[in-house]
């Protein structure tokens, strides 16, 4: 699916340390680029909701789940 490939490319750009997951500050910066400003505490809650292995970061799978839950109704 083309949209999955685009999201994967975005995720890899956000994952600046290339460990396969993104932290709350990384996600906050990435969302801000898209003019989506959230307090760090809100972004940390987003991470906690989809941090499936409870390591304080979100994998690509978690990002997909977050976007499907929060954004799919708008498309």
TrEMBL record:
InterPro entries: EF-hand-dom_pair, EF_hand_dom, Peflin/Sorcin_CaBP. Residues 2-37, 38-73 form the EF-hand domain. Its main location: cytoplasm. It is found in: Cytoplasm. Keywords: Calcium, Cytoplasm, Metal-binding, Repeat. It comes from the Eukaryota. GO terms for molecular function: calcium ion binding. SUPFAM superfamilies: EF-hand. One of its GO terms (cellular component) is cytoplasm. Pfam families: EF-hand_7 (PF13499). This is EF-hand domain-containing protein. It comes from Nelumbo nucifera.
């Amino acid at each position: 699916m083309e949209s999955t490939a685009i999201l994967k490319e975005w995720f890899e750009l956000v994952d600046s340390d290339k460990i396969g997951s993104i932290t709350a500050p990384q996600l906050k910066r990435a969302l801000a680029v898209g003019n989506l400003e959230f307090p760090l505490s809100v972004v940390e809650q987003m991470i906690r909701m989809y941090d499936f292995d409870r390591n304080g970061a979100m994998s690509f799978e978690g990002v997909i789940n977050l976007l499907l839950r929060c954004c799919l109704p708008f498309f």
